[in-house]
């Protein structure tokens, strides 16, 4: 059994309006950060997972992402996984 | 992707995917005198959808009474408006967001609230309250718990942020809604009686503006699909996200703009966004609108006219201004950081004409889109009458009492409404938990009373009587707090209208509602129809939901649903319980029957509209004379539930005595209409009896309050059963929290 | 005395606060837009409840950059009274006019109900009209009201009497059940509950009146000491 | 002037209770993902920024993170930045 560190990012599909991102972008502009654009705000999740090997870990993470961590109706996700170094 | 040509649309029957049937397409060709292009076909598709055109229900809706001295604006505008005296008026409407909520419950519910909000401030009214009427399957199911949790969060998420209190509503749970939850939202606003705005595009040459959010690709086809079967499949690409912050700014900016006097007409962009708003505004004025789509502020590059016209991006409005006063709009909207764009002109040629890149991309007679949209007289199945059957009293009184209080439809809804800001605006006199909510009118010693009701079990058993009850119950809740009922709005949530049985339910329910509206002098001033509520081919039980509005003159005259504890505690023995209205012991249509038998049984409960009216009038007299210190009407679960709720509220016990000649089970659990339990000072009980008699309402001493915390039931002078308030309270208060405690937030499916 | 209520885009308890002040004290109240740069004309400033900038990102995070908040900081430094209610409290912590932070409620839900508070400090300009340890009922309405302070700060707040109110029954997981805190000088108060919703006989409570009365007396009577006499 | 793609992650400091992370962890366990632990939920933000060069971009991003995108009282942040490829 090995342990993996997983980082998951979840954000709204491009076709879906992101009110948070929109508001943050406007705020950045008024604060003088004019050069910023295309701000999108999503979720970032970190977790540890125990699995026999990397491919088992990946399989579990993907299932998690699809079933719990993201809402496929309006969100997309991506993740990175690496073995935990002690 | 290239858009199909008119010929392809015809030959490949592409119009079907745009929501048009073969015969509707033929009608479009006839009205246009040519084959529509893709934009035009799309526009016809959405405007002739069930959602926008009311094609299956229109013929029947005409039977609603819509007039009365109090009515300033009946159906046809964005919301109905009634006069509440002293120069003030109330605008209100209810709308469904069932299908979007089934797919993405948080956003579906949130955008439902945002949509109904825009309908209200469009009228020039300052929104002051929301109510929400919800229906779900049983809570033993993970998916249902997820939907319930998310819908409630979504309603709060939008309402709390825009700063309008959610002061009332209802939630019922029945297996019939397992695959098709209902989310109906109502908004109420206040305006000067002479300050009403309309959604009319008048004044040839006046400029037309799109204001608010940018137009994106979201929600394209929402309106078409809202009318189609299996929302899960169809809505996947059409989720709209609400932005309550923008909604709040848009509301403030629009109210400011309206106050400037420069607005000729204003309309929110709901279903079918730019299409329906422009066509409806032109239609009401009997004129036309010309728009240059290049000027519409868009969120994404490369949007086509088709996409712009069908987008359902939230938080947008269409505004017609007086020519020469455009600067006012620019100044206000820029100050709020909102988009404002001059997109076109009012014309007098009766056409909706759209230009893009210097070409005319659509040119359609407005009358063809709106006034001449198809109206269907769908076949209606005959009705055999109610199913008469004996209802077994197999459930013991004790078990039934506890089970009824613990039934999520009856149980305490605090779990729901404590997630809503019920007090923002600091005008909430009575929030959730009372028979009707009361919101104070600024500067006046009066309050608006409001309540929603609708019991699908009754309508399923007897559509006409069920329709009567829906109205009677909502209106009675207003009268119970002492208010004078004024008018109603409604949401008709029904199944597939292509089925004659469903049409029979719809038609009969409307007849019943119309009769009740006439009898109770509460005309219908606005409303909404949601059809095709079904899953896997099974229709939901017919669910007309009624939102009623009344006015309470004098805040101190309100009648609470439980007596003030401090008052009662001084002298327990001074207070008597009375029952007003005709007593009954029939178990037809009751929740007791459903628990005992496992399905709705018998006829709908008893209702008599003339008797009902007398009870309502009596309650107003009692309020005016401050005769009673509490009143609570009998509804789902019967007298047993009413008395328990009243006593739990004041944490007291009491005794009640069954009337002579009644069956005890039936007497406790009957859901016959037109009954109200009141608490009266013994010294004034005789006077109460006399007033009731003069009003033609049966009235009888029901029992007494007591310091001990028990309910004692007596029959012929003998006490036959005793129940502890603590035990009842536990059943009542813990039912929903306990069901939801098993739920983990955000989880939509079961474990392995 | 003269009061200002600052209106941010998304404020929604601004009118409620102004109305409460007028009803309770009879004083003059101005609603001022968030772009105001000078608040020197006012004796007391209220940052009201609501969802400034939608509370997107973090509650109060964007509003704190408004010109009005700079002006508020200036008046606070000059000893004027500053009251942050709910979202106003969040703006004050985000702008470091008050220590700590307000996080998502531990149960993750928005919570609106009338709760019981304990008056922990009855000598501040905001609480001098209350009795020591008095239990009062005030409505709450927030999703992000969990007060957070690290150990050092908690001890300092307690030692310096800067905890103005505690919840009798912690509704959101706040450390030490803290409902409202004062700055070190005692002239800035932030609290999650809404005193402006508890000022009339027909509301769920009238216990919020004394908060506005305290402020009024403190200013009108000219000194902290006399207000407590 | 160049354009950079920036990804910012913000999460609660380890000492601060993260109820969302807790809820997600519970959800994962009920759904049978027993091997997961230490779930933390934070924010993920994407934005584009125009700057003269990478060090100018980094400077701007760091300032944004410290002043706006995170609150150092209870949060920590990290970011990645790379030049936008067209
Ligand atoms: N979804 C909801 N939103 C707000 N308030 C609700 C909701 N559901 C129920 N309530 C409130 O709970 C109380 C009880 O509801 P209900 O049993 O439907 O009342 P009644 O039987 O008098 O119609 C009412 O005051 C109602 O407004
Ligand atoms: Mg009732």
Give a quick set of tags describing it.
heterotetramer, B: 752 residues, alpha+beta, 60s Ribosomal Protein L30, Chain: A, seven-stranded mixed beta sheet, 36% helix, globular, C: 229 residues, alpha/beta, Rossmann fold, nine-stranded mixed beta sheet, two-stranded antiparallel ribbon, 6 helices, 11 strands, 24% helix, 25% strand, disordered C terminus, binds adenosine-5'-diphosphate, binds magnesium ion
Summarize the structure.
The complex is a heterotetramer, with two copies of chain A (86 residues), one copy of chain B (752 residues) and one copy of chain C (229 residues). Chain A is of the alpha+beta class and 86 residues long. Helices cover 33% and strands 42% of the residues of chain A.
Topology record:
The complex is a heterotetramer, with 2 copies of chain A (86 residues), 1 copy of chain B (752 residues) and 1 copy of chain C (229 residues).
Chain A (H helix, E strand, L loop, with lengths): L1 E11 L6 H12 L5 E16 L2 H16 L5 E9 L3
Antiparallel strand pairs in A: 1-2, 1-3
Chain B lengths: L5 H6 L10 H11 L5 H10 L2 H4 L4 H4 L9 E3 L6 E6 L2 E9 L1 H6 L1 H17 L4 E11 L5 H21 L3 E8 L8 E11 L14 E6 L9 H5 L4 H4 L9 H16 L3 E6 L4 H13 L2 E5 L12 H6 L5 E6 L4 H10 L3 E9 L3 E6 L2 E7 H4 L27 H10 L7 H4 L10 E3 L6 E4 L5 E8 L2 H6 L1 H18 L3 E10 L6 H21 L3 E7 L3 E2 L2 E2 L3 E11 L11 H6 L4 E6 L10 H7 L11 H16 L3 E6 L4 H13 L2 E5 L6 H6 L6 E6 H13 L4 E8 L3 E6 L2 E7 H17 L11
Parallel strand pairs in B: 4-5, 9-12, 17-18, 24-27
Antiparallel strand pairs in B: 1-2, 2-3, 3-6, 4-6, 7-10, 7-11, 8-10, 9-11, 12-13, 14-15, 15-16, 16-21, 17-21, 19-20, 22-25, 22-26, 23-25, 24-26, 27-28
Chain C lengths: L1 E6 L6 H12 L2 E6 L10 E4 L19 H11 L3 E5 L1 H8 L6 E3 L7 E9 L15 E8 L3 E3 L2 H9 L3 E5 L10 E5 L5 E4 L17 H12 L3 H4 L2
Parallel strand pairs in C: 1-2, 1-3, 3-4, 4-11
Antiparallel strand pairs in C: 5-8, 6-7, 6-9, 9-10, 10-11
Helix pairs in contact in C: 1-5
Bound molecules: adenosine-5'-diphosphate (ADP) and magnesium ion.
Magnesium ion (MG) binds next to loops of chain B.
């Amino acid at each position: 059994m090995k342990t993996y560190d997983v980082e998951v990012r979840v954000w709204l599909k491009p076709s879906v309006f992101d009110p948070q991102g929109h508001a943050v972008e406007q705020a950045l502009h008024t604060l003088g950060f004019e050069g910023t654009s295309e701000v999108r705000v999503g979720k970032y999740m970190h977790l540890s997972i125990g699995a026999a090997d990397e491919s088992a870990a990946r399989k579990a993470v993907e299932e998690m992402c699809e079933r719990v961590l993201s809402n496929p109706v309006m969100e997309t996700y991506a993740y990175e996984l690496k073995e935990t170094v002690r | 992707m290239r858009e199909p040509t008119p010929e392809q649309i015809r030959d490949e029957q592409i119009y079907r995917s745009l929501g048009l049937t073969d015969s509707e397409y033929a009608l479009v060709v006839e009205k246009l005198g040519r084959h529509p292009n893709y934009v035009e076909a799309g526009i016809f598709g959405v405007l002739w959808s069930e959602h926008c055109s009311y094609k299956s229900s229109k013929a029947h809706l005409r039977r609603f009474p819509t007039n009365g001295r109090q009515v300033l604006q009946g159906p046809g505008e964005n919301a109905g408006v009634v006069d509440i005296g002293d120069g003030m008026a109330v605008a209100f409407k209810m709308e469904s967001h069932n299908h979007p909520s089934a797919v993405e419950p948080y956003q579906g519910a949130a955008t439902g609230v945002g949509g109904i909000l825009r309908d209200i401030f469009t009228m020039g009214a300052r929104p002051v309250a929301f109510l929400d009427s919800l229906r779900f399957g049983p809570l033993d199911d993970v998916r249902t718990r997820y939907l319930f949790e998310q819908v409630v969060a979504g309603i709060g998420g939008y309402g709390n942020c825009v700063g309008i209190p959610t002061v009332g509503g209802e939630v019922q749970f029945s297996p019939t809604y397992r695959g098709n939850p209902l989310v109906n939202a109502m908004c109420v606003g206040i305006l000067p009686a002479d300050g009403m705005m309309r959604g009319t595009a008048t004044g040839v040459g006046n400029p037309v503006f799109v204001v608010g959010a940018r137009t994106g690709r979201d929600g394209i086809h929402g309106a078409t699909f809202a009318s189609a079967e299996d929302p899960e499949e169809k809505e996947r690409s059409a989720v709209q996200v609400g932005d309550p912050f923008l909604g709040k700014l848009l509301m403030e900016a629009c109210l400011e703009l309206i106050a400037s006097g420069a607005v000729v007409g204003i309309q929110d962009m709901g279903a079918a966004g730019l299409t329906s708003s422009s066509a409806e505004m032109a239609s009401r004025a009997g004129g036309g609108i010309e728009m240059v789509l290049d000027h519409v502020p868009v969120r994404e590059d490369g949007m086509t006219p088709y996409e712009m016209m069908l987008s359902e991006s939230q938080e947008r409005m269409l505004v017609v201004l007086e020519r020469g006063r455009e600067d006012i709009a620019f100044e206000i909207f820029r100050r709020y950081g909102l988009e404002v764009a001059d997109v076109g002109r009012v014309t007098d040629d009766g056409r909706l004409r759209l230009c893009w890149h210097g070409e005319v991309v659509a040119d359609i007679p407005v009358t063809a889109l709106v006034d001449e949209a198809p109206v269907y007289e769908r076949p209606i199945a005959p009705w055999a009458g109610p199913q008469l059957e004996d209802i077994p009293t197999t459930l013991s009184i004790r078990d039934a009492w506890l089970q009824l209080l613990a039934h999520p439809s009856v149980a305490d809804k605090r779990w729901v409404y404590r997630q809503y800001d019920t007090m923002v605006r600091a005008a909430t006199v009575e929030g959730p938990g009372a028979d009707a909510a009361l919101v104070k009118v600024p500067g006046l010693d009066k309050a608006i009373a409001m309540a929603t009701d609708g019991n699908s079990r009754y309508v399923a058993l007897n559509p006409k009587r069920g329709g009567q009850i829906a109205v009677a119950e909502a209106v009675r809740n207003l009268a119970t707090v002492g208010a004078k009922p004024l008018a109603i709005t409604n949401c008709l949530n029904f199944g597939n209208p292509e089925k004659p049985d469903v049409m029979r339910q719809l038609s009969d329910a409307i007849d019943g509602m119309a009769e009740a509206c006439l009898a109770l002098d509460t005309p219908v001033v606005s409303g909404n129809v949601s059809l095709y509520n079904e899953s896997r081919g099974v229709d939901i039980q017919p669910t007309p939901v009624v939102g009623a509005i009344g006015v309470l003159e004098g805040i101190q005259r309100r009648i609470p649903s439980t007596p003030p504890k401090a008052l009662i505690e001084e002298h327990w023995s001074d207070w008597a319980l009375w029952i007003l209205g005709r007593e009954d012991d029939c178990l037809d249509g009751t929740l007791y029957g459903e628990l005992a038998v496992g399905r709705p049984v018998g006829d709908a409960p008893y209702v008599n509209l003339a008797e009902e009216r007398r009870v309502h009038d009596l309650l107003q007299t009692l309020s005016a004379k401050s005769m009673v210190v509490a009143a609570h009407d009998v509804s789902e679960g019967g007298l047993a539930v009413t008395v328990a709720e009243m006593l739990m509220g004041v944490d007291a016990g009491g005794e009640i005595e069954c009337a002579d000649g009644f069956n005890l089970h039936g007497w406790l659990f009957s859901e016959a209409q037109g009954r109200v339990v009141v608490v009266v000072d013994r010294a004034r009980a005789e006077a109460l009896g006399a007033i009731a008699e003069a009003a033609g309402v049966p009235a009888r001493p029901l029992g007494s309050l007591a310091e001990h915390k028990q309910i004692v039931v007596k029959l012929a002078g003998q006490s036959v059963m005793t129940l502890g308030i603590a035990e009842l309270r536990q059943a009542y208060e813990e039912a929903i929290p306990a069901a939801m405690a098993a739920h983990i937030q955000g989880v939509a499916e079961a474990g392995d | 005395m003269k009061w200002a209520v600052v209106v941010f885009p998304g404020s929604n308890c601004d009118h409620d606060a102004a109305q409460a002040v007028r009803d309770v004290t009879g004083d003059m109240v101005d609603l001022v837009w968030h772009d105001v740069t000078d608040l020197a004309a006012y004796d007391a400033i209220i940052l009201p409840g609501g969802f400034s900038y939608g509370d997107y990102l973090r509650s109060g995070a964007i509003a704190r950059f408004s010109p009005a908040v700079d002006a508020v900081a200036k008046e606070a430094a000059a000893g004027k009274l500053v009251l942050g209610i709910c979202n106003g409290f969040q703006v004050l912590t985000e702008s470091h006019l008050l220590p700590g932070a307000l996080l998502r409620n531990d149960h993750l839900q928005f919570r609106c109900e009338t709760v019981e508070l304990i008056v922990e400090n009855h000598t501040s300009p905001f609480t001098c009209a209350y009795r020591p340890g008095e239990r009062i009922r005030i409505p709450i309405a927030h999703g992000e009201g969990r007060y957070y302070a690290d150990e050092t700060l908690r001890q300092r707040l307690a030692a310096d009497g800067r905890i103005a109110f505690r919840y009798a029954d912690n509704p959101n997981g706040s450390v030490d059940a803290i409902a409202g805190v004062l700055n070190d000088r005692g002239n800035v108060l932030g609290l999650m509950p809404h005193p402006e919703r508890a000022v009339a006989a027909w509301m769920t409570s009238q216990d919020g009146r004394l908060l506005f009365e305290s402020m009024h007396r403190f200013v009108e009577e000219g000194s902290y000491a006399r207000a407590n006499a």
